[in-house]
Amino acid sequence: MKINNCYNFQDFKKAAKRTLPSPVFHYIDGAADDEVTYDRNTKAYEEVDLVPSVLNDVENVDLSTTLFGKKLDMPLYCAPTALQRLFHYDGERAVAMAAQKYGTMFGISSLGTVSAEEIGSLITTPKMFQFYFHKDRGLNDSILQRAKLAKFDVLALTVDTITGGNRERDLRTGFTSPPKLTINSLFSFASKPVWVWNYLTKPKFELPHLKDHISEGTSTATSIGSYFSSMLDQTMNWKDAENLCAKWGGHFALKGIMSVEDAKRAVDIGCTGVIVSNHGGRQLDGSRAPFDQLAEIVDAVGDKIDIVCEGGIQRGTHVLKAISVGAKACSGGRLYLYALATAGQKGVERALELYKGELERDMKLMGCNKLEQLHRGNLRFRS
Q1: Catalytic residue of the set 134, 251, 279, 318
Q2: Among 18, 208, 269, 325, whose Cα sits 20 to 30 Å from the Cα of 146?
Q3: Phi, psi at residue 101, to the nearest 5°?
Q4: In this structure, are residues 332 and 79 in contact, taking their beta carbons and an 8 Å threshold?
Q5: HEC states along 178-226?
Q6: Is 134 known to be catalytic?
Q7: What is the pTM of this model?
Q8: Do 284 and 314 touch, CB atoms closer than 8 A?
Q9: Which CATH superfamily is domain 3-381 in?
């Protein structure tokens, strides 16, 4: 499918499925256990209706917002996700350049396949570094220092991966990082010769933030669930988060907050933001959707810190609903990863172009010129 024939999230998902070997596609597309939470993340937005206003002169619409002290041209950014080199040979470079073109933030992961230094020199738009807290404290210090030197604008500590979620699709397909051939996966890789050619002939797959410290995930194949369970520090606690916040010394967020109590503690330890997220339904199945938790978290701490709603977003109207509840911005991974897999930078640009177009059109249909005009009075909850 040509990217010009992709008009929405589902189109890119179908195109990615045709492009990627089965283990790699299902790594993006899959979630934990029965994938109930994964489905719920999007369905939560469908349980809320928009109530528009009319006759408001909406010829000019301003989609900009300020998040972590930086202006974004639209209230949607590309969340940090791991292993992007597996989806397209340009990996994080492609997403960074696309995000810069649309004036929004781009985040890279500790498990990114392009270094913080390269991304820092590549783009001038706001940048987030997503931090995994490893058992190896030397590795933690190295990652922190590299993100500092690369002048990232915000550090986001992921707090919902204390152990790996039960991602059964990965177990069935045998997905590992880096990929390895098995009897079960051989045909799926052989059936995607373009992907295989690019993987073998383009720059080598590596995890630059990890390779000098550990082999897992870079030269030693491992599943992401095993990596989380064995390499990340399960003793991580609030004091560790507070110390990391102090060491960073800049905008600091906790990624994976789902309760009011935890959001309040985030304020207490010095966070300037929280990302309301359940890791795309990939960790605790049966947990609430971020959008369903958003209002009570906004009411508790929204006047003190920035709040991001992450997960399940497939349409511009989903973003407007979250902004109406009180989020400063929204983010997601799959909303651009399928597009990355389909056509690299051009694919991500196409996806962001479509989201921006939806946001502008839907703002006009809501009768709003600025995001500040969105409020809960615009919403009706079916339940």
Answers
A1: 279
A2: 269
A3: -60, -35
A4: yes
A5: CCCCCCCCHHHHHCCHHHHHHHHHCCCCCCCCCCCCCCECCCECECHHH
A6: no
A7: 0.96
A8: no
A9: Aldolase class I (3.20.20.70)
